[in-house]
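User: Please predict structures.

Assistant: First:
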Amino acid sequence: MGLTFLTLDIGSPADPENTRPVEFMVDSGAIYTVAPGEVLEDLGIQPLSEEIFWLANGEKLTRKRGIGYFRYGDRVGGADVVFGEEGDANLLGATTLESLGLALDPLKRELKPMRLIIGGFRPYR
């Protein structure tokens, strides 16, 4: 299996016309997206909180978290974004993929449109 990289435009929900392209490694096993903190701050994205995050090796890190605006082609969405620090990888997590209506095909390592489901149960008539 290989790695999948993708360039998305990221911006502040308050100013969606002001974006910057950022290359991410798609990590469908990660919940959150991690982007360079300096880029997020330059775009006016405000941290909402500071959280503790766990790495796969058991190490824990404290990082700021805010809300970003994401655009990939004609798809747009908003999702939590973690303010990455020096040495952190740019990761595109599951919540951002879902906000864009995309899913990663784990075998082909390609993004595919996902079926958007609102939830609940509606019996067939």
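Second:
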Amino acid sequence: MKLVSEADLPDAGSAQPEVTRPLMWITPGRVLYAGLLGRPSLRKMGGFIVYVAQEQPIRVSMNGGPWQQGDLAVVPPYVPHRIASETRFIIDLIVEPETVQQGLLPDFLRGQQGVVSAPEFVARVRRVLAQWHLRCEAVALDDAAFDQVLFGEVLARATLDPRIAQVLADIAQNPAGDSSAAQYAARFTLSFSRFVHLFKEQVGVPLRTLRMWKRARSMLDYVTQSANLADIAQITGYPDSSHFSHSIRQVFGLSPKDVFAGSRKLKLHGLPASSGGKHRPKT
């Protein structure tokens, strides 16, 4: 696998927009998935989600509300929603909220939810995917390179309290870990209430909520592997297969079995373990 720099990124204006082969890019703070879409089950993910239609418009329902239709939909972190497409193929990007200055996000993403209009961004994503589908070699992008190729700019990084940044680094290094808020408070010589307040102020959600999302997200590292699902549940920190299945279904709207079945032909790109601290699958 080759670790690329910004200079290696594809020309977003040089490819045809047709995308049909499933593909996923994973970086510590970003995910891009282009592939099969399951039935419109309720899902609730912890990142900013940007859904892009491949050909025919997509439909999205936010918090049980009416269906909206368009080429681009934005879902804020932890908002329950359903997504549907007649083509059963979807393109979606996930941006981890703690990695960016949310007030400086692109206009179509900042403070938006539901169907929005950003035709240039839609066209860019389609062209970039078409161009990268032509590459035979697996590549790895860091967050900045990912942003440059998909958004056309590097998204402004969040400035975090160093103690909270360390907690986030710990979770990224080991999503299966179970250090409690009380343990972190003691580690940084803070009162329990002060740590809890500071963490939620900086990250937006309690430690437990963030850990549940990161643990579920870490499953994506393994979707092209043939390992037993019970083994993957244990590796990613779930006490048993039942908890694993329930949590994954709540987050992604699909069971782990369905996620893995739909990923058999997926081409996975990602950072090596030394860059993101995760146990990356071989590709």
